[in-house]
Design brief:
Two copies of one chain form a homodimer. By secondary structure, the first copy, chain A, is α+β, with helices and mostly antiparallel strands. Chain A has seven helices and ten strands. In chain A, helix 1 packs across helix 3 and helix 2 crosses helix 3. The longest helix of chain A has 15 residues. Chains A and B meet through strand 7, strand 8 and strand 10 of A and strand 7, strand 8 and strand 10 of B. Chain A binds a DNA duplex (19 and 19 nucleotides) through helix 3.
Chain lengths: 240, 240
DNA sequence: AAGTGGTCTAGACCACGGC
DNA sequence: CCGTGGTCTAGACCACTTC
């Protein structure tokens, strides 16, 4: 019965891909019924358990919803909450183009607390990049990034004025980011930041500390950002 | 082969329960290996697919981790991120006891924007409770809560000085809260809040707007909170 | 009644990990 | 090498929804 095709991809994945593509292409819309387990089994010449595997897996991911006795239906489009985005991506998501001005970029050695957070030895050399972030022509934020100088050799040679740091980490160093733990509070601008961000000295700023982890669970990047109030709002969803 | 026991519970669930109980009881600790699919199949007299179902399902929930070629292991205890907590619960989670002073409590009718957010008709009557929140003896926050006056009749008769609003909603009104959408930014205290929170007029405060939904997906409670910088930090996790 | 998903069997072969 | 999980078969009966 087995037809002996290319092995590489499991049958249940091929079925899933086919369904996903139809949803992507708009052939299948939210609420539409997907083929039943038995139909899929017949169409793809697989057993019921395999067709079932494909569907339960898609249901687990939220792509489809299964209703006992009724069928399997395309789920309403997912909204991503608490999504980790780079500054460039955040601006793009609200239809703005972002750029940066690098204030300083170099190697620092005295930042023991940050090194510790990054899981690096006491006194480790860190790449430190300090930027002012713009939305249009307005300065919105001041961000300081720290990374292992050893792991990210040559990072300072990359121009970060218009390229996303996230993209560089992924494409040049093969580091896939997974999640970030963040701490958010408020603070006053103070003299230096007031000048940089064009605000009053005692203007309230949102302060966000991010420790960003790779898919392997290793801390990779530490970011300390200060954002102009009124120009930047954090949106999150919490669950009970 | 079937032994015909009580049907009610599927075999794979019985297997899961047994494993969960052993973890709960401490017989099985994080990192410990769980029986293999084949062992479980033999022990419970079920087929491999059924034993497998039990384990993949537990893995999906994060109770165990499966490692190809190695085995199935008890996962490290789950930490809940982005958890929706009431103020009382938050304080308790860091070992502090919280109390409140109610500044005002009554029915308001002009808050059209908030009524709209709560999915109520224009001009709907709202319960409005305004409180100062303390940690120990220090005033930490100012919170304004809004709820449907119609749905929560009699809420104003409850003393909220020491009882959590979350608890009252659940126990007195049978409302189970599910999640909240929040917006966070920064602002200056201004004169009135400066007095209430014992800070300077231009001190930076964290401002959090919460729209809290019940398990049925209906918006139930709107909270606007202002938190003293340095005394309150929001901790979240974002995912890529 | 017909069709759907939910549970389950009794095996099979493969890919991977650790000894 | 042996044991592990990953994929898969060719069916079965039950529970549920829809008509």
């Amino acid at each position: 019965m087995k037809v002996l095709i290319e092995k590489a991809e499991p049958a249940y994945r091929r079925i899933q891909s086919a369904i996903r593509e139809r949803i992507e292409a708009g052939t299948l819309n939210p609420g539409d019924m997907v083929e039943s387990e038995r139909e899929l089994a017949r169409i793809y010449s697989v057993s019921l358990m395999t067709a079932r595997h494909a569907l339960t897996d898609l249901a687990r991911e939220g792509v489809v919803e299964r209703r006992h006795g009724a069928g399997t239906f395309v789920a309403p489009p997912k909204i991503h909450f608490n999504k980790l985005l780079g500054y460039t991506e955040q601006m793009a998501s609200v239809g703005l183009t972002a750029h940066s001005r690098v204030l300083s970029a170099g190697i620092v050695k005295g930042e023991h607390e940050i090194a510790a957070r990054l899981g690096l030895p006491h006194g480790a050399a860190l790449v430190h990049i300090e930027r002012v972030r713009f939305a249009g022509n307005d300065p919105i934020a001041h961000e300081s990034c720290y990374l292992s100088a050893e792991e990210f050799r040559g990072l300072l040679d990359v121009s970060l004025d218009r390229v996303s740091l996230f993209t560089v980490l992924q494409q040049n160093y093969g580091v896939e980011l997974a999640y970030s733990d963040e701490e958010i509070d408020a603070t006053d601008a103070g003299h230096d930041l007031a000048v940089l961000l064009h605000v009053e000295r005692d203007a309230a700023l949102l302060r966000i500390h991010q420790l960003i982890f790779s898919t392997s669970g290793r801390p990779v990047l530490y970011v300390r950002g200060l954002y102009r109030s009124g120009r930047h709002t954090v949106r999150i969803r919490r669950f009970r």
